[in-house]
Amino acid sequence: MSFESLGLAPALLRALADQGYTQPTPIQAAAIPLVLEGKDLLAAAQTGTGKTAAFSLPLLQHLSTSGKTMTRRPRALVLTPTRELAAQVNDNLRSYGKHMHVSTTTIFGGVGMGPQMQALRRGVDVVIATPGRLIDHMQQRSVDLSGIEVLILDEADRMLDMGFLPALKRILSAVPRQRQTLLFSATFAAPIKALAMQFMHEPREVSVSPANTVATTVSHHVHPVDASRKRDLLLHVLSQDSRRQTLVFSRTKHGADKLVRFLEVSGLRAAAIHGNKSQNARTRALSDFKTGRITVLVATDIAARGIDIDQLPIVINFDLPMVAEDYVHRIGRTGRAGSEGLALSLVSHDESGLLRDIRKLLKQEIEITDVPGYAPSQPLRLDPGAPRPVQGQRQARPQGRPGGQNKSAPGHRPHGHANSNANGEHAAANRQRSRRGGRPAAKA
Ligand code: AMP
Q1: 80 and 306 in contact (C-beta within 8 Å)?
Q2: In 3-state terms, what secondary structure has residue 394?
Q3: Which residues have CB under 8 Å from 15's CB, separation 6+?
Q4: Are the CB atoms for 430 and 132 separated by under 8 Å?
Q5: What 3-state DSSP class applies to 396?
Q6: Facing residues of 152 across strands?
Q7: For the whole model, what pTM was predicted?
Q8: Domains and CATH numbers, the chain
Q9: Probe target for ligand 1 pocket from 16, 19, 305, with the most ligand atoms within 8 Å of CB
Q10: In ligand 1, which atom is closest to the CA atom of 92?
Q11: Closest ligand 1 atom number to CA of residue 46
Q12: What is the distance in A from the centroid of ligand 1 to the CA of 409?
């Protein structure tokens, strides 16, 4: 199958050739013809499958071949859970649309509203926004959503997890009913289906990989280790090849900062990326990582959403995530687009239960091997009574879903996903802000 056979315009085909893409990924092959036909689409595809191009290419084609561009009423809106994903979608749209005249802008928190207002005033075709900041602009009447022809919800499951449902509903009620809606989600859990039923028109469904699976090119390894020796083991692993770019996951922001300090003192070039960092610091860390100025990027789950780094050979879980699905998201950073990847987890006895959950979810072999000199004093347990860390002790995330939706719906995550949203703002402050109709709370 070729991109030509999907009916894409020559300007897009040229941009794809510039990118070095030779053939569509499965989600692109399935989604692009349906989107070009103008159908609503419910797509199950996780990061790493090529989903961004699956919606960006037909969107650019639609915008460049119909209607007026660059008016004060944007024609397409892409909603994403995090700033990083918004920035990445914007970058992708720009590179795929480089031979076309389609303008794009991002709208997210953590940076001033002024430049965003100016961009909107100048006129733009596609707005890529996180929900919280878009609501701020709606309240200030600096964005006019009455001309939206195509609405895209990217990583919709994560937006719901992050408590954005009320914001999404508000945004959905502000865009025209007559529109095309595309919803991308890693899973088709019940709340996603409910959202689709309510806001989409006879959506076609495409699913490229069964929910909760990871690329088969990723191999999974676990090194059992005492919690107190994890840092030393990490250093040992990293020093095997100190030039290799490595993404390390930490469950908490504080843990990520501590780990970076330790690695720096040990002579490695590292930086952390998490919700308490300013937007500038996050952007710098990511670009330093991409250019190789730093070799280790330590990330928390939320901050890592949407990070796009080509062919990362290895991802290390310094802590296991509390929710097995997060393991799948973390591992999405390696083994992308067919390349080989290694997912290595350093697991202490008290995390045994989390490893058990991950094994059940993955249905894939996880190789467990001791590292000589770092064998744990207590072996891992994989029986039903295996211990798990007590939330709140080793883990800073509080319980409870932001937005007060703490019910666990079938197939949905049972826990709240941190108390701060993608903009690094506290959910409670956001709720208060939306009641006040005021500006975002200052960041701590
Ligand atoms: P995404 O799932 O949108 O985050 O994309 C994952 C990665 O695959 C990105 O680095 C894209 O640049 C890359 N990609 C997307 N489509 C293709 C393609 N058809 N061929 C090769 N790489 C691709």
Answers
A1: yes
A2: coil
A3: 95, 96, 97, 98, 99
A4: yes
A5: coil
A6: 78, 182
A7: 0.59
A8: 4-207 (3.40.50.300), 218-413 (3.40.50.300)
A9: 19
A10: 12
A11: 2
A12: 32
Amino acid at 283: T
pLDDT tens-digit profile of 47-103?
Answer: 777 899 999 999 999 999 887 766 779 999 999 999 989 999 999 999 999 999 999
Measure Cα distances from 315 to 147, 259, 330, 412 in Å: 42, 15, 8, 25
Cα–Cα distance measured from residue 39 to residue 21, given in angstroms and rounded to the nearest whole number: 25
d(CA 420, CA 77): 23
CA distances, 376 to each of 225, 349, 423 (Å):
4, 8, 39
CB atoms within 10 A of CB 245: 18
Distance CA 12, CA 416 (A): 40
Say if ligand 1 is within 6 A of residue 43 CB: no
Q: Is 384 exposed, middle or buried (0-12, 13-18, 19+ CB in 10 A)?
A: exposed
d(CA 106, CA 124): 10
pLDDT tens digit string along 339-363? 678 899 999 999 999 999 999 888 7
